[in-house]
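Appendix B, example 12.
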Amino acid sequence: MTGWTALLLAGLVEAAWSQSIKPTENFTRPLPTVICFLLAAGAVWLLSKAMDTVPVGTAYAVFTGIGAVGAVTLGVVLDDDPVNAGRIAALGLIVTGVVLARLA
């Protein structure tokens, strides 16, 4: 697995992790809590693998960018979070930054 593949997967797992927090109900439900911690650990492990070849600053910026866009997208799809021009513009800027980080 290349560093960039690991980084993409890490960002996707982070987005899934973001959605796994609420079902824990403040970490009072055992199974959702275990799933939440496993997703968090998986995201960080994949990020660490990506950092074997991708510079740390770039890897972290891309990781959080993918996670943020994924979290907002999942929120819109799964939780009916609001969609408006400002949010779409912000996500577009994040995606642009991730693409530029990859190309640089």
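Helices lie at 3-20, 30-50, 56-79, 85-103. Residues 38 and 82 are 29 Å apart (CA to CA).
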